[in-house]
Structures are given as structure tokens and as C-alpha cells.
Amino acid sequence: MKNSFCIVISGEAGQGIQTIEEFLVRAIAKNHFVCSSKDIMSRIRGGNNTTEIRITSQQSFAYEETIDLLFLLNDHAIERLWQRIQPHTIILGEKEFLAHPQILKRGLTVYPIPFSELAKASGGKLFENTVVVGVLTAVLELNIEFLKQQLRDKFKTKGQDIVANNENALQLGYTFAHENIPSIGDDIESPILYDPSEYKVIDGTEAVGIGALAGGCNYVASYPMSPSTGVLVYLSQKGQQFDVLVEQSEDEIAALNMVLGAWYAGARGLATTSGGGLALMQEAISLSGMTETPCVIHVAQRPGPATGLPTRTEQADLSLVQYAGHGEFPRIILSPGSLEDGVLLTQRAFTLADRYQVPVFLLTDQFYTDSLGLMKKMTLPAEPESFVVKSESDYQRYCLSEDGISPRGIPGWGEGFVKVDSDEHTEEGLITESFTVRVAMNEKRLKKRESILNDYVTEEWIGNTNAKHIIISWGSTYGVIKEWLASTTLDDVTYIHLKQLLPLPERLQRELKEKTIICIENNATGQLANLLKVELNITVTHRINKYNGAPFSLEDILQKWNEVMQ
Predict the structure, then answer these.
(1) Fewer Cβ within 10 Å of end Cβ, the chain: N or C?
(2) pLDDT tens digits for 411-424?
(3) 3-state class of 314 per DSSP?
(4) Helix ranges restricted to H, 219-317
């Protein structure tokens, strides 16, 4: 029996692969742990896209190279996927797709399926993806009645004919597979102590969106840019229910300035973008630093420079976020690894921004935002606390304080006049060119770092805490490293997942002293490794980097680890 079974569906943009993924993941989740990820080309029609669905015996949020079951919905996928196909891989598809020379040469197990013919019998090519769902329902021994109900819920607004045709396509695919293809349901190891009612199927986008709502977000302004756009869409769909005002701005420059205006007026605003959009926000980030106006910025990373690979994944914007904006001022950088982290850290971001009056960055990436997984249901912390004060008549927006944090009032609440200035300013908020005041105000702002560290989001340690070898990572590499470690017998390894990347506590320097440190990152230059050196003078012994646009796979980690240990 296999404790992980990997299904890959390959087809063109426009063939409805995302719909297949949505239906199947929710159906599989009724009996098994499941996660899925996408490899998408940057085009609206054509090309070759794949969706990977992994059925696992333990909770997972990781990518695997090896394919157990491959569905071919077009005729030009084999070259792209050949390295992932193994002797045991089963391939299903139209008869002509299976006649590929490499498939024939290796003698792989194939099952021809007349997808087009079955779809035509259901009403047309439009229903081909539902036929695929029907085939997999039979092969994986899923509950067909549950899937029929999913179809009704999904397409009920499109009319009864569409619902009926989809149900027919599902049934035709199911019947064909049941009669012609052996099921593999019994070959997959059942999960231990799995109660589906305790889990929710979500992706990283939804995790961030839920966290934003839990953090009291009531305003979002953004210019669409993949892979961050999903958060804008999610919050727009929740606008009426949660009283969120949504603005699709003319560009990213306007977006963050609007968010700053919202915070100034007393709202809790969010800007969601990717690296190219953040590059346009630099001046507004610096404005946040000088005016001490809070903001939360979600940065969903993708490969650059410039347009790069707009639909692939990378972790190459940490340095950009670390130094974004001109001048010197404090900031907080958070990065979720699990879906639970996405909810909790996003909620925390709004509280931290409000409390310390600084920009807070939330770093995700394409793999994280677009991948589906199971999140255990949880009770969120209490409602977000507001740190806005009612101003007195002698109110000073920038009064000097021991911890660097001045009372933040908002216009119209209280008797004081809320003066905010982007030039250097006095305690009252008036422009000044006094060298003495400049030093005092600069030190006031930078003094917040110590207070922020008292609120440090503690890192997660996995494994033997006294081990000699320390693996450190951040963001979406969490799932694959955690799963790889669980599958090994290594006892001299500790894994540290950093959830807060800036600022970092000095205690880490002491705890990592005389250790062999291995940093694993989806970038070329080792940006976290560089940050550890700059911030804490921690020298990383080995850097494991991947930067081709794909996430780390379980196989990657094993191979790179063996290379490092040798």
C-alpha cells in the first residue's frame, strides 16, 4: 500500500482543469488527507498546464515529482512530464495520445479513454472535464452521489440543462472506467485518526483572506497582479457580509496611498500585490515609515526580474521587502508556511501594524496561494484590539515616548487636530529642519524595534532540538521539509521554520552557535541566509537553493540533502 498517491492531470488552458481539481479534492477529502498544486503557463488558451493531486496518509502541503496516475487531455505533455514518469506510472488518455513513441518504448501501462466521444454524448466538448471527474471517481472509489451534489451546487445558476449534462458526463465517465479500468482505491493507505469534519479544504489565498477578515480588515485597494489577485477577489466576495470596502485602483502607487489614507481615517486597510507591484509602492512605503501610519501589504511572490515567469513560484522578494522604501524606519516581515499560519499571521499582521504604527509585510508565493490543502478547524483569537486613542485638545501626534510609540488619533474623534506630515516634523506634526529634532524623531521611530521584538512571532522547531545539523527555511518550503523529515530516520537534525523574518531576536544567535546550518530557499542567492548574517551575524554553512520557477519537491530535498551531507 502507498502512503502517498500522486495524480497529475495535464491539459491546455481553457480545458477546465481547475474545475476538475476543485471537485476531486473535496471528494477525496471525505476519506483521505489530500493536497493539490498547479503548474500553469502564462496564457489564456492553449499551452500545457498540469494539476497535481496528492492523496496522503498524513496531512500534507507539499509537491512530489513522481507521478502514479497521469491523465492526458492533450497531445503535447509527454516531453514536459517525461522526467516525472516512472515504470509504475499508469497513463490514461485518448487513444492517439497514448501512441507516443516514448510511452510505447518503455511499455508503460496505459488505458485509452474516449473523452471526446463521452463528452459529445453528454452535450459537447464543454463537458470533457466532467467526464474526467467521473473516471477518477470510479478509479479512486469515491462517492459519486457526493460529486453529483457538488455539480448541482456549482452549476445551478446556469440552468437545469447544464446541470443535467454535467451529471450525465459524470455518470458516463464513471461507468466507462468502472467497466474498463481497475480501481486503485485499495492500494492507498488509509489515514490514521482522520475525521473529515475537523478539516476544511482551502488554498493559501483563502487562508490569507480569512486572516485579513479576522484581523479587522475593512478596506482593500489593489491593482490586479498574479498571484496576489485572488486575495482581492476573495475580499470583494466577502464585502457585504463583512463590511469591506474594495477598490481596484488604477495602479499600485495609488493602491498603497489609498490604504494609508484608510488607516489615517481609522480603517484597517490591506494592499495585495506581487514583486513588480511592490516596486511601484516604494515611496508610499517610505511615507508609512515617516508618518507612522500603519499598513499591511501582502506580497505574493513570483519569479522576476521584470515580468519573469508570472505564473510560477519563487521566494526572491525577501531582500526587496527588507529594504523597501528610502530612508531608515522599522518594519515587520511575516511569512506563513502552513494554511493555519496564513490565517493566524495575517490576523496578527493587522494587530502589529496598529500597535506599532509601522508597515507590516506578509510574504507568500504562487505555490502557497494557489495550492489546495486541508486546514484543521480552529477557534480564532479574540477580536482585534484597536490602538486608536481619542485625542485631547493639546494632542501631539508625534510626542516623544520611551518606547517610541506615540498615541495615534484619527480625524474627528476627540478634540485634538491630527497633523500628519511627510517631511521631518515636530511632536505636533509641524515641518522642521532642526537637526536636534531630526535626531530625536529618527531615534524615536527606530526605538520601536525593541518593543516589536517583545511581540516576536515565535519560530517553529521540529525534531531533536539538541541536534548538530539545523535546517532553516521560511514560507512555503515548510510543508515539503516537514513531510520529508517525517519520512526519514535522521535523529541529528532540527528544522526551524521562521514565521517572522524581521526583526529577529538575538537569542537565535546563541541557540545556533556551533551548529551546522543548512538554509533551504526558493531563490538563487540565499536571501534568508544573507539576512541572518546581516541581522544576527549567523553564518549559514550550506545553502540549498532552487530558482527554476518550480517549488521544492520531496525528491529535491532528499537529493540536495544527500549532496550536502557528502
Answers:
(1) C
(2) 999 999 999 999 99
(3) coil
(4) 229-237, 239-242, 252-265, 275-280, 282-291
